[in-house]
Write the C-alpha cells for this entry.
Amino acid sequence: MGIILGMALPYVAFSVFVVGTLLRIVGWMRIPVPFHLTLFPVPEDKAGSVRELVLEFVLCRSIYREDRLLWLWVWLFHVSLLMIVCGHVLGIYFLRQQFTLVGLSSETSQTLSVLLGGVAGAMMTLSLGALLCRRLFRREVRGLSEPDHYFELILLLAISVTGIAMYLPGLHAELPEVRAYMAGLLLLDPVPLPRSSPFFVHFLLVNLLMLYFPFSRLLHSAGFFVNRAMLAEAPPVYPTPDRSRPRSDFSSRKIHPDIPCPMNVADKEAGSK
C-alpha cells in the first residue's frame, strides 16, 4: 500500500494534472470565436491589455465591484494559497532556514517560517470556511450551487486543516524526512513516506486534488488568462474589411475561409440601407 500511495500515486496524479490541464487549455484555444468579446473601455495597445490582465489577476477587481464581502474571502484565499505554495517550496528545501539568506539568525528564520505558515494556513481555512458557509446559508447562492461546488470547497478545506494539524505537538512531520521524500520523487528515486499520519492524509488529499483539478471548475485559474485576454484585446475596426479575420490571436485561424464573417455581413447590410 505504501508503494502505491507513496510512490506510484504522486507520479500518476502529477501526470494527470499537467497533461489534463494542457489539453483543456489547448481545447479552449481551438474553439472558433467568430466575433469580438472586447469589453469597453479597453486599452488600445498590448501593454495596456497586459496591465489590465495583471491587475485583474492580482486584485480581482471584477469581483470587488460586484460583491465586496465575497471579494474579501476570495482574495484572502488566493493570497494565502500563494504564501503556502512559496512557503512549502522554500521551507522544505531550506529546512525553514530561508530567511538566513537575508541576514536573519537561524532561530529567527525558524520562528518566522513557522509563524508565516501558520498565518497563511489560518487565512486559507477561514476564507474557505466562509465561502462554504456562504453556499450553505445564502438562499440565492445555495440555489445556484451544485454538488461539485461543495466537494471542491470541502476538499480544499480538508487539505488546509490537515496542514494546520501538523503544527500541533505530537502530530508534526519531521522536515528532513519530508525533504528527503520530496527529493526522491523529483529525482525519480522515491523513498518511503515520512512516519506521520497527518502528513500522509495531507499528501493523499493533495494528490486527489491534482487528479481532480483538470476536470473541475478549479481550472478557472488557468482559464482566467484565456478569458481575460479575449475581453481585453483590441476593439474591432468598422467597417470590417471584406473577408478579414474577425479575431486577432485566438481562434480566428480555425474559421473556414468560405464561411462569411458575421461582422462582414452586418457591415454590408448596413451599407446597403
